Amino acid sequence: MPPSIDNDLTAAQNELFNWIKNYMRDFQHSPSIRQMMKAMGLKSPAPVQSRLRHLQDKGYISWQEGKARTMQIVDEIFEGVPIMGSVAAGGLIETFSDLQENLDVSEIFRKKDVFALTVNGDSMIDACIADGDMVLMEPIKDSFSLRNGTIVSALVPGLGTTLKYFFKRNGKIYLEAANPAYDPIELNLNEVTFQGKLLAVWRSVRN
Length: 207
Hints:
The active site is at 123 (for autocatalytic cleavage activity), 164 (for autocatalytic cleavage activity). Residues 33-53 bind DNA. The structure is a single chain. The chain is 23% helix and 26% strand. By secondary structure, it is an alpha+beta fold. The strands form three sheets. It has a seven-stranded antiparallel sheet with strand order 5-6-11-7-8-9-10, with no helix packed on it. Strands 1-2 form a two-stranded antiparallel ribbon. It starts with 10 loop residues before the first helix and ends in a 5-residue tail after the last strand.
């Protein structure tokens, strides 16, 4: 069967995309740039990297340039999780029976350069983010556009990377916990580097 061709992909992009899908199906991990160069008959990594950027921009792959084995096929990350109704956290309600719709989480992974961080500590517990959770973050391109109350990951000298609420007041930056046991961190703008803003929280429940 010939490879499928998507209308919004060029022939070169489609060739690489189909090859990547077949490779990842066979080997269960993403190929290296060198392997893609060889498969496409190219002598330079630049054309491969250009095609990968286009595939990412068009929502076909999730990929962190310069980091090995980070590629994922967006449609294969999640096709959608079935929403089967609702569940009571108080009194009982009628159990679910019929599929109502799908919860589409693929949009999260279509965003460019999404990355994950493991949460250490309980400073965001009142925001339902617990120790051991995984947070999915979207890179912050312009810190001046951050809105007060956004949950961000920030690099603070002497403290490392921390997950906190962002607030800006009177020319100062405040990183505030969602736990009254922790005091706010007060900083000048040039004392902090914002890495990402929260997209989603992933919690693996173990029995």
